[in-house]
Every structure is written in structure tokens, then in C-alpha cells.
Amino acid sequence: MTVSIDLRQVVYALADALDLVGVDETAHGKRVGYMAFKCAEMMGMDKEARERLFHIGMLHDCGVSSTEEHTHLVEEMVWEGADAHSAIGATLLESFSYFHDYAQVVRYHHTPWESLLESDVKPEIARDANLIFMVDRVDALSAIHYGKDLLQQTGNIRKEIQEYAGTLFSPDLVELFVLVSNSEAFWMMLEPPHLQRFLFDMERFTTPQPVSFEKLKQMARIFATIVDAKSHFTFEHSVGVSRLARHLAERSSMAFDTCERIEVAGLLHDLGKLRVPDQVLDKPGPLDADDKLLLHRHSFETYQVLREIEGIEDIALWAAYHHEAPNGQGYPFRRIGEELTREARIIAVADVFQALAQDRPYRAAMALPKILELIGEMAESGHLDTDLVELVKAEPETCLKLAVSV
């Protein structure tokens, strides 16, 4: 496939997805990226190095997908469990060649400076990792003041960072941060509308980085891994949906390129679940009305993340429509009939089949005959596409193996 995607837009989309873990506070990675960029600028780094730290800042928490873990990281200056997500994030980034250089920085971004000095970590990696650690903690200290009294608290925040010079943070980096953060404008830029403008300017003035569709697919696997790690009940859900969706596309005699794009849509369909609180996803009983409202917005959030990437507009819609129904009774867009393409209907069928075949907190995985009975009923009522359900019924064992790797 010859379609070219701009890597910058993919990075921004991934940053948006990662920031959804904050539920109501959805700009942590962007603020860390901004502060890292400003510190790099003060250090006199060249354009490429500044952009690199900006991207690392936005992606540094790619190992975090649960709201519980996010809460610990925001509320505790030094949390003993912080190293786990650093290691997971580094492994994810190492799997994609364009991000290989970011991985070691992310690996050590919660390692105290005094420990880095005693390690064999390369000096430039240690410096960059500690810079990300420092501005990450600045954002954690600032979190309760955003939209309230941040400017009144900057002195206290700077003072607390200074108290950790030589232990958590490099004294040189602390001194640098004190200089960079001396202006009110530095802090004002952390407010959502101004931060968004900074991101817009970064995209306008940085160099486009085209990547192939195959590279995008590799990135999609990273997205899927992050989402599926949010709950052990959804382990490999996105991967299973993508495999089954591709199979159904091939059985529908769709073109190779379309099958490729459907596979990616399957990998990305649940990105918005990163914003659903853990207690909702893992609830052992029926969801109440408020829980359902929280859950039902996830496919809308998926669309908001993916629509930023030029060249995958169709994928964004197929992924976002996975809870829509031909009879118009789906959510959250309430599409009906011909408004739903066959590609979108494929993702919907694959999603339902995979979910029924997998354990959930409120039930065990269903046996294949029961799955076929239920999706048959959903097809009869207009909730799923009849023709696609018949394709599943024609090869039930194959579909099950693709969905859950049995």
C-alpha cells in the first residue's frame, strides 16, 4: 500500500490516547512534552533534539493504561510502583524502529538522579531521562492547581523541585528549570487553550515525517497493546478483533488494501476505553446508568483521537462505529441502515464475537454454540449485519481461533 502517513500526527494521536487515562485530566503528556521542549531550548539544543524531547515527553507514559496507576503517579511524588510502567513503556517503544531511540529515556524516567550516577546508563540518556522525570513531577505537583491558583503556587512548586536537587534530580537540570520557569508565561502556557495552540504551532513548524502504511500498522499494534493492558479481562481483545475482522473482510472478497485497513481499524477500535475508569471496566456485576454513560462514550473518544491522522479517515469511522447497529439502536452516533458501510459492520461483528468468547468480570467466556445463538438473535433484531453473521456461522471454529487464539 502506497499511502503515506505523517508520523507527527500519529505521535499526537497516541499522546491524546495516553492522556485519556487521566479521565478528567487529559493533558499530562502534552504538558510534559512542552516543558521538556522549553528546557531543551534553554540548553541550546538543536531543532531535532528539541523535537525529540517533545515527542518523548508526550509518549513517556505509554506504559500506563489503568486509572489506578495514573492516580498513584499524579498524587505521589515518589511511588514505589513507578518503575513498572517505565519498563513496559520502553519495551513498547523498542518494538517500533522510529521510537527505538526514545525507549531508554522512557525506561529510566522515574529513576532518581543519584541512582543514575551509579549506573552504566549513558550520560546523555541519563540527562534526558532525568529531565523527563523532573518535568513530569512538576506537572504532578501542579495538577491540583490547574484552573484554580497555579500562578500563586509556582514559587512553592519550584521550591519543592529544588529540595530534590542531587537526589531525585540533577542539580544542573533543577537550576535550568528554575531559569526556564521564572516567567508567568511559562506556566500560563500549561493551560488547555494555550497548550493546544503550542501543539498546533509545533505541527505547523516542524518537518513532516512520512511513514508507510506498514509502519502505521506496527504503531497500531502498540496502541492495541496499551488499550488491552487496561484490564486483564480485555487482554488481546483488540488483536483478536483485528484478526477476525480481516478474515471476514477476506471472506467478503474485499480488496487487499481494504483488508489491511480493516485490520488496523480492529486494532484501534477501543482506543477510547483508556478514558473509562478501571472500576467500570472491571465491575463484577451489571453496570448502572452512570456506568453505561461512561462506557458508551469510548467509541466517540476513539474517533476524536483517530480523526487527527490524515489518510486514515475511513479507518477512523470504521473503528468508531463498532457499537453502531443497522437498526439505528447502536451508540453513540446512532447511525442506521446504509449509513453503516460493510467495513464498519465487520468491525462490529468481530467485536461482539470476540467479547462473547472472552472472560468478563460478570461472566465466564461463552461456549461457541451459545455465541452463535446470541449473534444470530442480534442479526435477527437488526443489531448486527445478517450476511456477516452467516459468514461467521459458516466457519465457527476458525472464527473462534482467530478471536481468542485457542
Automatic annotation (TrEMBL):
Secretion signal, residue range per the UniProt entry: none
Domain called HD: residue spans: 234-356
Any GO molecular function: phosphoric diester hydrolase activity
SMART domains, per the entry: HDc
Domain HD-GYP: residue ranges: 212-406
Database matches in Pfam families: HD, HD_5
Name of the protein in its database record: Phosphodiesterase
